Amino acid sequence: MNDGGRVPAVGLVLGAIVSVQVGAAVATTLFDDLGPTGTVSLRLGFAAIVLVAIWRPAVKGLRGQRARDVALFGIALAGMNTSFYLALDRIPLGIGVTLEFVGPLGVAFAASRRRLDLVWATLAAAGILLLSPAPGGDLDALGCALALLAGVFWAAYIGLSARVGRGFEGGQGLALAMVLAAALLLPAGIVDGGGELLEAELLAVGFGVAMLSSAIPYSLELEALRRLPQGVFGVLMSLEPAVAATVGFIGLDQGLAAREVLAIALVVAASAGALRTAPPPAEA
Q1: Domain containing 39: what range?
Q2: Does 2 map to a domain?
């Protein structure tokens, strides 16, 4: 089996996952000053500026199905990021990512066509359940609901990202969708962040978050979705909770319980299995 096109695609997905989780950890340091909505607004605004400068998307001729895909993609980006940041203001990063992962996991199940695909998705689901909080705890209910809502938007993002990636050259579609997402969140971001949105130090941190959490990973995922089936992409994204736990351990001094280590092993096995048994990507 020829893995020449698949290995680079998996590297793109893994790079996107690490970038997102590091960016999310850094973003939480802005919540006290800008609030979750102000932080995500700053992040998407910077990401839109950078992506437009890189790809210089053409608005002329944007109509019909292409325009609808960009609009829906922008709404999904705005909804996914806002609900996730609002969740992070109430619950820990690892738990938030675990609950949000219902979106990609749902994509993996929906795209399953063989029994073996279902095995990998089931392994990933088992890992997610092990990382989930125990019932009856003191976890914030609204925070959990917001993380689940982010998962719904994440599932929509995966499908729309694949469509936009096929319909536009390079990252032009992503750049247009990011501009729309930033515009949608600007009013709420100004209300939440206020005058502190103009402070140089906060702007610098916000720019770093934008690169780590939006511009870099979305571009990597967009390219990966051109090379991998959506179902395989969804199962590979099961590494998100494991990476979030690792970032918490290294950067936030959060220890790992034996149950969490087992969960990491399950999602790694699911991702490796999905990669090994996936059909070769189609020729570009």
Answers
A1: 26-277
A2: no
- Using alpha carbons, select from 124, 85, 89, 132 the residue that is nearest to residue 106: 124
| 30, 206 contact by CB (below 8 A) | yes
- When divided into structural domains, the chain yields a total of 1
Regions in the chain scoring below 50 on pLDDT = 1-2, 4, 281-284
Give CA separation, 127 vs 74, 123, 131, 204, 228, in Å. 30, 6, 6, 36, 22
CA distances from 191 to 2, 35, 49 (A): 53, 10, 21
CA dist., res. 201 & res. 191, Å (int) = 19
Q: How is residue 84 written in tokens?
A: 């996730």
* Residue 268 counted as domain residue: yes
Listed in sequence order, the residues at least 6 apart from 230 whose beta carbon sits closer than 8 Å to its beta carbon are 107, 111, 158, 159, 162
Does any domain span residue 215? yes
Which token pair is 196? 């502190």
User: Residue 212 has what DSSP assignment?
Assistant: I
Q: Pick from 184, 203, 208: which is nearest to 193 by CA?
A: 203
Q: What 8-state DSSP symbol labels residue 228? A: S
- Closest C-alpha among 274, 282, 228 to residue 119: 274
Query: pLDDT digit string (tens) for 167-222?
Result: 787 778 889 999 999 999 999 999 999 889 889 999 999 999 988 987 788 778 87
The pLDDT of residue 283 is 42
> What span, in angstroms and rounded, lies between the C-alpha atoms of 147 and 101?
9
How much is the pTM? Answer: 0.81
CA angle centred on 41, ends 61 and 45, rounded to 5°: 45
Give the whole-angstrom CA distance, residue 23 versus residue 109: 28
175 falls within a domain: yes
